[in-house]
Write a structure and sequence with these properties.
Blueprint: H1 3-27, H2 35-56, H3 62-84, H4 100-112, H5 117-141, H6 155-187
């Protein structure tokens, strides 16, 4: 499949996904998306899909492609959840801005590794560790005050949810490590 075909297919999938909330809005008053919500969601979905298409084409290795898929999904879910409800407290909690550091570690590491499997593995492990550190800082060090202070953050819920998100980065790292190992065996 050519790159143009892949991008066309991606645009079709994103459009179909965006039809779900559009149709739901016709039947449920609880679903209330603005034009801005559709633009942001479409941009996030298309951007994540395009990232997968462009990076996964670099290596013809199943573990590598799965690693790209998990890493892209982790990044997409991080941004989506942070915008929708926040990862620590509500979406208005300024501590949630710290999670941008996780994406920065993953992206800078991936570009620094030139998207090679072993370097991608290190970048994803670094993103997972950064995720854990950011969560700890947001929960225990940086406690917002004033209007941003939240009366009750359910610690167990936050820890479990953030543990799952951090685990996604680690899974991506393990998949890239496996891709690197299989590449080394093919070269030997």
């Amino acid at each position: 499949m050519t790159i143009l075909q892949s991008i066309t297919r991606l645009a079709l999938v994103v459009t179909l996904l965006l039809l779900i909330p559009l149709v739901a809005m016709q039947f449920d008053t609880g679903v209330n998306w603005s034009a801005f919500d559709f633009i942001v969601a479409g941009g996030l979905l298309f951007g994540a899909g395009l990232t997968f298409v462009l990076i996964a084409r670099k290596w013809h290795n199943t573990a590598y492609r799965l690693g790209v898929g998990v890493a892209v999904a982790a990044g997409l879910l991080l941004v989506w959840a942070n915008l929708a409800v926040g990862l620590v407290g509500s979406e208005d909690n300024p501590a949630n801005l710290l999670y941008g550091g996780v994406l920065a570690v993953a992206l800078i590491g991936a570009f620094g590794a030139r998207f090679r499997p072993v370097g991608m593995s290190r970048a994803m492990f670094g993103a997972g560790l950064t995720y854990v550190l950011v969560t700890a800082i947001a929960l225990f060090v940086w406690k917002p005050t004033g209007a941003a202070a939240e009366p009750s953050v359910h610690l167990l819920n936050v820890l479990v949810a953030n543990g799952v998100f951090a685990a996604l980065w680690v899974v991506a790292g393990l998949l890239f490590r496996r891709a690197g190992a299989s590449t080394n065996h093919q070269l030997a």
